[in-house]
Write a structure and sequence with these properties.
Helix 1 runs antiparallel to helix 2, helix 2 (about 30-35) packs across helix 3 (about 40-50) and helix 4 packs antiparallel against helix 5 (about 90-95). The chain contains eight helices and no strands. It has helices at about 10-20, 30-35, 40-50, 75-85, 90-95, 100-110, 115-120, 145-150. By secondary structure, it is mainly α.
Protein backbone atom coordinates (compact mmCIF):
# COMPACT_ATOMS: atom_id res chain seq x y z
CA UNK A 1 0.00 0.00 0.00
CA UNK A 2 1.35 3.40 -0.92
CA UNK A 3 -0.26 5.86 1.49
CA UNK A 4 1.46 9.17 1.97
CA UNK A 5 1.56 10.98 5.30
CA UNK A 6 -1.10 13.55 4.39
CA UNK A 7 -3.64 11.16 2.86
CA UNK A 8 -7.15 11.94 4.06
CA UNK A 9 -8.56 8.56 3.14
CA UNK A 10 -7.01 5.13 3.34
CA UNK A 11 -8.87 2.09 1.96
CA UNK A 12 -10.30 1.54 5.44
CA UNK A 13 -11.43 5.19 5.62
CA UNK A 14 -13.05 4.88 2.19
CA UNK A 15 -14.95 1.79 3.30
CA UNK A 16 -16.15 3.68 6.38
CA UNK A 17 -17.19 6.58 4.16
CA UNK A 18 -19.19 4.24 1.90
CA UNK A 19 -20.79 2.49 4.86
CA UNK A 20 -21.96 5.80 6.29
CA UNK A 21 -23.55 6.85 2.99
CA UNK A 22 -24.96 3.49 1.83
CA UNK A 23 -25.79 1.61 5.05
CA UNK A 24 -26.45 4.41 7.54
CA UNK A 25 -28.14 6.70 5.00
CA UNK A 26 -26.19 9.84 5.88
CA UNK A 27 -26.06 12.60 3.30
CA UNK A 28 -22.78 12.88 1.34
CA UNK A 29 -22.35 16.48 2.53
CA UNK A 30 -22.40 15.37 6.19
CA UNK A 31 -20.00 12.52 5.56
CA UNK A 32 -17.64 14.81 3.64
CA UNK A 33 -17.51 17.27 6.53
CA UNK A 34 -16.96 14.48 9.06
CA UNK A 35 -14.13 12.89 7.05
CA UNK A 36 -12.52 16.18 6.01
CA UNK A 37 -12.90 15.69 2.27
CA UNK A 38 -14.97 17.31 -0.46
CA UNK A 39 -18.48 16.22 -1.31
CA UNK A 40 -17.30 15.32 -4.80
CA UNK A 41 -14.77 12.90 -3.28
CA UNK A 42 -17.55 11.18 -1.34
CA UNK A 43 -19.59 10.70 -4.51
CA UNK A 44 -16.51 9.36 -6.32
CA UNK A 45 -15.76 6.68 -3.72
CA UNK A 46 -19.42 5.67 -3.35
CA UNK A 47 -19.68 5.25 -7.13
CA UNK A 48 -16.51 3.13 -7.23
CA UNK A 49 -17.77 0.97 -4.36
CA UNK A 50 -21.12 0.38 -6.10
CA UNK A 51 -19.41 -0.47 -9.42
CA UNK A 52 -16.52 -2.66 -8.24
CA UNK A 53 -17.06 -3.39 -4.57
CA UNK A 54 -14.37 -3.29 -1.89
CA UNK A 55 -11.64 -3.79 -4.53
CA UNK A 56 -12.60 -0.41 -6.00
CA UNK A 57 -11.50 1.29 -2.79
CA UNK A 58 -7.91 0.08 -3.09
CA UNK A 59 -5.16 2.16 -4.61
CA UNK A 60 -4.68 2.01 -8.34
CA UNK A 61 -2.18 3.70 -10.55
CA UNK A 62 -3.01 6.92 -12.33
CA UNK A 63 -0.48 6.19 -15.05
CA UNK A 64 -2.10 6.10 -18.49
CA UNK A 65 -2.50 2.74 -20.20
CA UNK A 66 -0.79 4.04 -23.32
CA UNK A 67 1.15 7.14 -24.36
CA UNK A 68 0.61 7.77 -28.07
CA UNK A 69 3.00 10.74 -28.19
CA UNK A 70 5.86 9.08 -26.30
CA UNK A 71 9.30 9.20 -27.90
CA UNK A 72 9.90 6.00 -29.84
CA UNK A 73 12.72 3.63 -28.85
CA UNK A 74 14.75 4.24 -32.02
CA UNK A 75 14.96 7.96 -31.27
CA UNK A 76 15.86 7.28 -27.64
CA UNK A 77 18.66 4.96 -28.76
CA UNK A 78 19.93 7.65 -31.16
CA UNK A 79 19.91 10.22 -28.35
CA UNK A 80 21.92 7.91 -26.09
CA UNK A 81 24.37 7.00 -28.87
CA UNK A 82 24.99 10.65 -29.69
CA UNK A 83 25.49 11.51 -26.03
CA UNK A 84 28.03 8.71 -25.65
CA UNK A 85 29.93 10.44 -28.44
CA UNK A 86 30.04 13.40 -26.02
CA UNK A 87 27.69 15.61 -28.05
CA UNK A 88 25.94 18.51 -26.35
CA UNK A 89 22.16 18.82 -26.13
CA UNK A 90 22.12 21.31 -28.98
CA UNK A 91 24.18 18.98 -31.22
CA UNK A 92 21.77 16.12 -30.46
CA UNK A 93 18.60 18.15 -31.02
CA UNK A 94 19.35 19.66 -34.43
CA UNK A 95 19.60 16.51 -36.61
CA UNK A 96 16.85 14.61 -34.75
CA UNK A 97 14.33 17.45 -34.83
CA UNK A 98 13.08 17.05 -31.26
CA UNK A 99 12.94 19.43 -28.33
CA UNK A 100 15.89 20.12 -26.08
CA UNK A 101 13.75 19.49 -23.00
CA UNK A 102 12.87 16.03 -24.35
CA UNK A 103 16.56 15.21 -24.82
CA UNK A 104 17.36 16.50 -21.34
CA UNK A 105 14.59 14.38 -19.80
CA UNK A 106 15.69 11.23 -21.65
CA UNK A 107 19.34 11.67 -20.67
CA UNK A 108 18.54 12.44 -17.04
CA UNK A 109 16.39 9.31 -16.86
CA UNK A 110 19.37 7.27 -18.11
CA UNK A 111 21.86 9.11 -15.89
CA UNK A 112 23.76 10.60 -18.84
CA UNK A 113 22.83 14.25 -18.31
CA UNK A 114 26.37 15.22 -17.19
CA UNK A 115 29.37 14.82 -19.47
CA UNK A 116 31.51 13.85 -16.49
CA UNK A 117 29.49 10.64 -16.16
CA UNK A 118 30.44 9.51 -19.66
CA UNK A 119 34.18 9.20 -19.13
CA UNK A 120 35.59 7.35 -16.14
CA UNK A 121 37.49 9.45 -13.65
CA UNK A 122 41.25 9.39 -13.84
CA UNK A 123 42.92 7.73 -10.87
CA UNK A 124 44.81 10.00 -8.51
CA UNK A 125 48.49 10.49 -9.32
CA UNK A 126 50.21 8.64 -6.50
CA UNK A 127 53.89 7.93 -6.04
CA UNK A 128 54.85 4.79 -4.19
CA UNK A 129 58.35 4.27 -2.83
CA UNK A 130 60.01 1.15 -1.47
CA UNK A 131 61.65 2.77 1.53
CA UNK A 132 60.06 5.45 3.70
CA UNK A 133 61.81 8.76 3.19
CA UNK A 134 62.69 8.15 -0.45
CA UNK A 135 60.69 11.17 -1.38
CA UNK A 136 62.05 14.32 0.18
CA UNK A 137 59.58 17.16 0.53
CA UNK A 138 60.88 20.70 0.78
CA UNK A 139 58.82 23.78 1.49
CA UNK A 140 60.17 26.68 -0.54
CA UNK A 141 58.74 30.02 0.32
CA UNK A 142 59.81 33.50 -0.62
CA UNK A 143 60.31 35.61 2.43
CA UNK A 144 59.16 39.22 2.45
CA UNK A 145 61.52 42.14 3.04
CA UNK A 146 60.48 42.43 6.69
CA UNK A 147 61.16 38.76 7.32
CA UNK A 148 64.66 39.02 5.82
CA UNK A 149 65.57 41.86 8.19
CA UNK A 150 64.46 39.76 11.19
CA UNK A 151 66.80 36.96 10.19
CA UNK A 152 69.90 39.20 9.83
Amino acid sequence: MNTHKNARLTPHGRALLDARVINEGLRPREVAQAQGVSERTVYKWVRRYREVGYAGLQYHTSRPARSPFATDTITVEQIIARRQQRQTYRQIVQPLGIGQSTVARMLKRRGLNRLAVLSPTQPDNRYEHDVPGDLLHLDIKKLGASSVRDIE
